[in-house]
Amino acid sequence: MDNHRLITFAQELVRLPSLSGEERDVADRVQSEMEALGFDRVWMDANGSVVGVIEGAHDGKTILLDAHIDTVGISPGAPWVHDPFGAVIENGAIYGRGVADMKGALAAMVHAAAALDRSALAGRVAVSASTLEEVLEGVALRTVMDATQPDFVVIGESTDLNVSRGGRGRAEVHLTTIGRPSHSSAPHLGRNAVLDMMRVIATVEQIELGADPVMGPAIFALTDIVSEPYPGHSVIPSICKVTYDRRLLPGETATDVLSAITDAPGLADIHLRAEIGVGEYTAFTGAKQRAEKFFPAWLMPEDDPFVMASLAALNAVDIPARLTAYRFCTNAAYSAGVAHIPTVGFGPATEADAHVIDERLKIDDLLAAAKGYRAIIESVLSR
């Protein structure tokens, strides 16, 4: 494996901005790299995800390694020391938006797969650079999986070079209170939807949520509140809407999430509507993806053969990995949570390195990740 070329490739990806729906430049660069490295098949699908396949010399199973190529933006008012798209190397690390989440992992996957000894492989390796993950976890991956039909999936989100065997899911919960408008000089003639929502919020904040010993507690986090009409010129608001980010544990359903609110005591007199949000986003190809924003949690058994094989493979190449679980939501919400395909997470950097000012990735971890991806592949496809 050419480490210098791997590092340079990671830098080149970081230098190409790629917000969700604007990933074309990165997708094109990934496709050209896969072709130059000799992947047997490379294509771009309807969502703009790029998929490359390495065929082993012998028949066998298929393993898919996935890394998304979209990133979050640069938050205003929070200055970076390093240019977010400069990919500067300093103190042994690459700095830039997306290097940890997760262009470094993608670069490592592409080069690890290309360096495999095909004569020793029974099966095939697919690497996907998927789109739209930051807004719809797993939706674009579904198209990739329909095309590749994997028996195993590796998600390259940050694990600090450990093996993640599960992850919290995510639901976007929309609550609406419906009141009755009146002139604000006579509020008693109306019903203030904001005051009703204040009661709802107080109730939601008191709901007791479960916890998982591996991935931590479920969470309700209030993310926005809006009233109508706005501005409310001398009018009592008749509509109030809030959004909650709900972090999910294995087994929780949309019905569980919503009924915990609608069945809560003390809200019977409030006209309350609770629903899971629906998102619609357009890929840079023009394809539209519309999906309910409920992305389930997942958890692989500790003794699952793929989990055990991945852990053993990493330890065998001197990566002292241990079993962990993601606290955030990833594309594994589909591969494991919906499709029930054996899935693990393995990637460089930590969860705390994502979406931050001066995002960075240690070069030693980038190279270790490439070594680790190769080891995991060989552990399941070795003849």
How do you describe this structure in short?
The protein is an alpha+beta fold and 383 residues long. It is built from 9 helices and 21 strands. A 6-stranded mixed β-sheet has the order 1-2-6-3-7-20, with helices on both faces. Strands 9, 12, 13, 14 and 17 form a 5-stranded antiparallel β-sheet that branches.
**Secondary-structure element order, as H and E?**
HHEEEEEHEHEEEHEEEEHEEEEEHEHEEH
Overall residue-averaged pLDDT value: 96
Give me the Rg, rounded.
Answer: 23 Å
Gross morphology: elongated
Ranges where pLDDT stays below 50 over 5 or more residues in a row are: none
Major sheet: arrangement of strands: 1-2-6-3-7-20
How many helical stretches? 9
- Given the helix and strand composition, which structural class is it? alpha+beta
Could you estimate the helical fraction of the residues in percent? 25-40%
Distance between the termini: 21 Å
Percent in strands: 25-35%
Largest sheet: 6 strands, mixed
How many E strands?
A: 21
